[in-house]
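tool_call: predict_structure(chain=1)
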Amino acid sequence: MTFLALVRHGQTDWNLARRIQGNTDIPLNDTGRAQAVETAARLVGTRWDAVLTSPLSRARETAEIIAAALGLPEPTSEADLVERRYGDAEGMDYQELHERFPAGIVVPGRETHREVQLRVHAALIGIARQHPGQSLIVVCHGGVISSLVRHATGGGRPRADERIANGSVHSFSYTGGELRLDEFNGEPVNQLALQAAPEVP
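tool_result:
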């Protein structure tokens, strides 16, 4: 069995302003760096073998802070762990998004939730198969984690009142060809599985 702790990167100035980042490479702010230190402290006491990260700098710096605090090697970048592409909506706040692209209007260049889920699920399955029996920290993004959690729970989580907070940890395990959600932000959940080969629409 391989264990994967999915960590959302620390805060950026765009997070604070509620601007859509997507693939735009926005760095951590000082609050985000402090959050990374706090996350590392929560992960102490468990054996970890490696840290992997999205290549975007907000995730990479979070991963570097965590790896250094836990005495682990330099994080390895995985291109398919990047945040959802929001296309023309990147840089907008959510009010502007809804004004310019009301419900039913396609945002040019924006990845669908399904596309994100398929991309990231395949990446995590590949990572798990490359690291059998290991415990891994995977630093990525809110949209990435949300897509996986939503699929694993049949849309039950995250609920409308739940956020994938900066620095939060969500635990998955891989065994028998399945990636299972074990904990949502530290809360145990039923063993709900994402099959190794999800159906393509």
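agent: Confidence is low (pLDDT under 50) at residues 194-201. Proceeding to next step.
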